[in-house]
Amino acid sequence: MTDTPNGWPQGFHAWTGRIGLREESGDDLSLIASDRPCTSAAVFTRSLFAGASVLVNRRHAPVQQTRAVVTVAKNANVATGEQGERDAVEIAGLAGAAVGASPEQTLISSTGVIGRLLPMPAVRDALATAAQQWSEHRDASPLDVAAAMMTTDTRPKTSAATVGHARIVGVAKGVGMLEPDMATMLAYLTTDAEVPADLLDTALRTAVDATFNCLSVDSDTSTSDTVALLANGAAGPVDPDEFTAAVAAVCLDLTRQLASDGEGATKLIQVTVTDARDRAQAKRVAKAVVNSPLVKTAVHGADPNWGRVVMAVGKCMDDTDIDPGRVRVAFGGLEVYPQHAGDDQLALLTEVMKQPEVPITVTLGTGTAAVTVYGCDLSAEYVRINADYTT
Amino acid sequence: MTDTPNGWPQGFHAWTGRIGLREESGDDLSLIASDRPCTSAAVFTRSLFAGASVLVNRRHAPVQQTRAVVTVAKNANVATGEQGERDAVEIAGLAGAAVGASPEQTLISSTGVIGRLLPMPAVRDALATAAQQWSEHRDASPLDVAAAMMTTDTRPKTSAATVGHARIVGVAKGVGMLEPDMATMLAYLTTDAEVPADLLDTALRTAVDATFNCLSVDSDTSTSDTVALLANGAAGPVDPDEFTAAVAAVCLDLTRQLASDGEGATKLIQVTVTDARDRAQAKRVAKAVVNSPLVKTAVHGADPNWGRVVMAVGKCMDDTDIDPGRVRVAFGGLEVYPQHAGDDQLALLTEVMKQPEVPITVTLGTGTAAVTVYGCDLSAEYVRINADYTT
């Protein structure tokens, strides 16, 4: 249902440029904007230390008319106090002006190191270039923008879907500090569908709940998580149900790309918990499994140590209705508990765990709810990347 | 206040032997027993998948007369169903008989791989040897027993303290799957103090709450956690307050040894949260920091990326009384937030983070409670150890 976008929906344009935050060459500043008014929806991190960009956006988001998005990569502008907030306000103003949007219509994101002030002279220079070039050179592709948003991502993430005469095009970034709560690191969806703001909001929240909020790379929640959906109506109205499904499909595709590219990841882990009391219980148990460092390292080494999955389920100590005697655990179609795996089965399990996607299913026997969450294995490379990130 | 034990308290003896679960040579079975009746206290894992040994112990612990402890290393006897429980009952019976204790007076522990039945013929042979040798060769030292309990531990953990004319001697093991809740992997304390069972219970629970329950290596809670304290009275009565303090000191010493020897660990991380609303909030925030993979990897690489500490505090999203404007963060005596660290300070911070013990202090400003928790850094070695544990 999703495909790779080779352009933006009608009326959307983009530009990328360089502040100089990225040590090596490469763009670290990006702008996406619609040439006509938009309805919009957005969700942000619930972190208590939400960044300055998120704080500024929260004041503008209720207007639901975002038509421009500016992103700074490699510096999160978080824990930077009042100066950081003044900087975010200034960037939103300059970026909006460059593309003909008011500050209230401009969403700002920043992602990278926490606790460093932005080099504002360089940021102002880059935004002045953007203003000069916007009318003639606003031809950056979704792939260009996704690349300019990257921090330790190894590849840009984009996805698209068609709904009626309209397109939905999304870009995302995020590899570590990735257990979103309300939204993931950064993901923007644009569409030329004509969608009322309330439907847009519902479609986005429904999709985020089942996709980005079911993603975890390392159980650390970012201070900058933002997902936004901008609709400019250029392609006319679409069927609401089809639109909602298409938004969910693009979010799921991006979520899976984010999980697969988790810092140091070599495999995607997909944990489905079924027969749970309610969705909250299913998600709690699924997250306990997908976040367990011992499950993650076993998957990394294709070590058929399935006992770690029951250990992780056992950590949900407040779910006292879970009875070990009714729990079932399977890898792919291969049940490992309570059926005791013989040596033949362990060899088969090793093969399942060597695949690029490892599906784990836990049947709780406490009800009928189900949730799937997405994560990745834990490798020595994750340690290497994060042991010297700022230095 | 603590020291290294060179023997057991009066009236306690020990023996170690080999079942053959440990691939390389080395003992994997141990027995500790008192030659006279004891009062006892014990706490166990809250895991929903508590192992067969824990299930059996829970039935006996309320009697508070444990005088013998038998430990099997390298196989946890967890997720092994009714057969596993029958095996645990049989081992407790045979081990107790070997040292002259009833099954109800015998505590059994097992630690290692989950989901494998014990090789009972070999276990029975080893326990028969124990029964033959107990009267003549019950001369294993605390260090011998701690070594026989090890799984991926790199060194045995022992600690002792003197209280009045009595001694308290403790042994422990645990390196991974180590975020105890109610108790740590395995820790046994013996004393020849004469202590009523209710004081023993209070002293143990108080100590465990501030020590083992404040320890986390990888946020994974074991299915086998057990802490027990046996008192045989051979040295007569002691001052209750001094006794309680001495038990806490031994537990803290063992906790610090466990954290330092966390799987792949190169450093101990000590996170103190002060000025919190209550102890629960302080512990929640401290655990969020000490368990953050991004904080752990930064400490590993001595990367002065202090922003990850505020990120981890920000994850405690239900603590809405925490105001980023009142939070303070320091490494050792070096404040890094809200004071913005210049390059000089970052260089100093790097030096602090290179030490074998890295102390992090978070001042919340929501009250007056404080808690210290203990953890370790995350290294590539943790991944290596756990990517091929069973194979």
Summary tags:
5-stranded mixed β-sheet; homodimer; alpha+beta; Ubiquitin-like (UB roll); 391 residues; 2 domains; L-amino peptidase D-ALA esterase/amidase
Helix tally of chain A equals 11
Outline of chain A: globular
Widest sheet, order of strands of chain A: 3-9-8-7-6
CATH topology (fold) name of the largest domain in chain A: L-amino peptidase D-ALA esterase/amidase
Instruction: Compute the number of strand runs of chain A.
Output: 14
Biggest contact: A-B, 68 and 68 residues
- Spans of chain A of 5+ residues with little confidence (pLDDT < 50)? none
Rg of chain A, alpha carbons: 22 Å
Q: State the fourth-level CATH superfamily of the largest domain in chain A.
A: L-amino peptidase D-ALA esterase/amidase
Q: How much helicity do the residues of chain A have?
A: 25-40%
Verbal overview:
Two copies of one chain form a homodimer. Chain A is an alpha+beta fold. Chain A folds into two domains: 12-260, L-amino peptidase D-ALA esterase/amidase, CATH 3.60.70; 268-387, Ubiquitin-like (UB roll) (Roll). Chain A has eleven helices and 14 strands. The first copy, chain A, has helices at 52-60, 81-99, 120-137, 142-149, 197-210, 240-260, 279-291, 293-300, 307-314, 343-354, 380-387, and strands at residues 12-17, 29-34, 39-44, 68-75, 106-113, 157-163, 166-173, 186-191, 226-231, 268-276, 328-331, 334-337, 357-363, 369-376. In chain A, the strands form three sheets. A five-stranded mixed beta sheet of chain A has the order 3-9-8-7-6, with helices on both faces. A five-stranded mixed beta sheet of chain A has the order 12-11-13-10-14. In chain A, strands 1-2-4-5 form a four-stranded mixed beta sheet, with helices on both faces. In chain A, helix 2 links the parallel strand 4 (68-75) and strand 5.
